[in-house]
Amino acid sequence: MEDAALSPEQDMTSTDTTAPYTSAPAAQAEEAGGAHLLGFSDEILLHILSHVPSTDLVVNVRRVCRKLAALSLDKSLVHSVLLQKDYQASEDKVKQLVKVIGREIQQLSMAGCYWLSGSTIEHVARCRGLVKVNLSGCHLTSLRLSKVLSALQQLRSLAIDVSPGFDASQLSSECRATLSRVRELKQTLFTPSYGVVPCCASLQKLLLYFEILDRTREGAVLSGQLMVGQSNVPHYQNLRIFYARLAPGYINQEVVRLYLAVLSDRTPENLHAFLISVPGSFAESGATKNLLESMARNVALDALQLPKSWLNGSSLLQHMKFNNPFYFSFSRCTLSGGHLIQRVINGGKDLRSLASLNLSGCVHCLSPDSLLRKAEDDIDSSILETLVASCCNLRHLNLSAAHHHSAEGLGRHLCHLLARLRHLRSLSLPVCAVADSAPRADRAPAQPAMHAVPRGFGKKVRIGVQTCPGPFAGHQPSSAFWSLLKNLPFLEHLELIGSNFSSAMPRNEPAIRNSLPPCSRAQNVGDSEVAAIGQLAFLRHLTLAQLPGILTGSGLVSIGLQCQQLQSLSLANLGMMGNVIYMPALSDMLKHCRRLKDLRLEQPYFNANAQFFQALSQCTSLQRLCLVSRGGTLQPDAVLAFMARGLHVAVCHMFTGESLATCKSLQQSLLRRFQAERPALNVVIFPLLHEDLTDVIRDVPMVHLDEITLFKSRVAEEPPNLWW
């Protein structure tokens, strides 16, 4: 590509620096006989630039030279702009980006950009060619939303929040005209409202997220009756996908019933995905029964998720018709293995189209009879074998929150059967499910964790010197778990969660102080099994929770060394409660996690000291940190030093056993010192002394609570590609 003169749209704005374009670096490299980045072809350079944040392309890269200026504004790079989790996107950078490439942008995601002011969000109106826009988590009043949407006549896909104070009567006629053409709507509700749904006459995909608190900040009890008088005629006649996810609380159930009431009158003929995710119980009503009966008669579904109370003891699945299903979720249902095979898989019917299956909390799904099975009983491997054979193209599978114990027998172990699912990309399993059916003769029995730490005049551990074994030291290649991971080399998301694990800060359940003890078989899953995870070279997301068999934590070092693509790590309750003896191994692991962006650590009595934060500082890509430790401690000076070194850290949430005064002082110090240079900085430091932290986290952006602070299993939580 020749260095032609820039067009007016590509020229430098009045705010640009006066540094001229130059090709001197390339020329100097050629004289030295070396290679230079600009010597690559345009195709290679465009691929490299596709990994650079859009704000950096516009503000920095395009100023380097004429060639990069032209490539930075290539249509392939400016067609779709992702600002989500771009914590360096300041107000000025976003405004400049819109000014330079606004007319070229067709897809824009500003989801979770809570730090941008409403006036900056208004600049989206200049992107008149937008077809898709995601403004979830952004500050938008009814009037600002009206102003933005009035200018976006090409818009077909929209994501917004509906917050207290929203008033649909303030939407202009131009805004309503735009909404009438929207086909895809994602709406997160923080107040009882229909939002903009009644204005969207062409809806084909509707995603509803209910995050309404039962009480206001002032303590007033909310009610769905607040919606009386609002327009209640949503247009569902063209609907193909209906999805509703509810946070805990009766008010969310009350409001979703009002949305479902219209569906019960007339089921859309083209409906092919119907999904409702509800924590806890959600009683059926006459309207919902009519809706389900109508669906059974008139539509063939490709995706299904229903509240457990609608399925338990019901013959509904027997009457449902499925076309080419790609997603099923029966989370927390009392679905037996016999019913799973007969009613869902239809006696071994070919379900190659099924890509995602969520059976979390289905404690009886791998046994023939749910009435007679006990938690400690072995699974019926023939049921799992039928499932694997029928759903051979599964990419996402969740079997967590249940006891799936394998019996003796060659090739009958759950891990051996799952190893046949070569297309799996995400997998969630209970810890006890990966344990060998019986202790192996070639493995010495694990010693109790209380004896793992040298006592008295024993040899001391030297800080800074690696005392953990190498990547696969002591590892038994004959274990079923090792064989499973060997056959799934492209796995990107793995969860090992104890069957009885209960987080101190859960997403969908009430926090409880006295959790159940771990499954006895989980004691057989220790450092060598964790080390086996190091085989997964493409692993990006890892969760390990309630592994009492962890002794030194040497397996963590293997993961840090081998899993170089790891971006998200969640560790909870490793080893014996009250003894955090894996700190040296964790510190060694973190030194190698150069691409780690999110770290969630939940461990009672954890000492977040200078050694921990020094190791964490070497995670140079870290953006979000959450520490949950009942009875734990932290060193304020170490936290401040870590934040000074961690230049990309934008979210710091810590809930420990420190006093309220210490927590408030540290939080104020962090905000005072770093907020000016980090516009997206979000800090919450608070004592974890009681279960209800609603008032504390009320003002924390939901995107962070949902993704890092509050614990939940994420594998097969939603259908794949539900939203772009």
From TrEMBL:
Keywords: Ubl conjugation pathway. GO terms for biological process: SCF-dependent proteasomal ubiquitin-dependent protein catabolic process. Gene3D superfamilies: Ribonuclease Inhibitor. One of its GO terms (cellular component) is SCF ubiquitin ligase complex. SUPFAM superfamilies: F-box domain, RNI-like. Residues 1-20 are annotated as: Disordered. Pfam families: F-box-like (PF12937), LRR_FBXL18 (PF19729). Residues 10-20 have a biased composition (Polar residues). Residues 34-81 form the F-box domain. This is F-box and leucine rich repeat protein 18. It comes from Chinchilla lanigera (Long-tailed chinchilla). The gene is FBXL18.
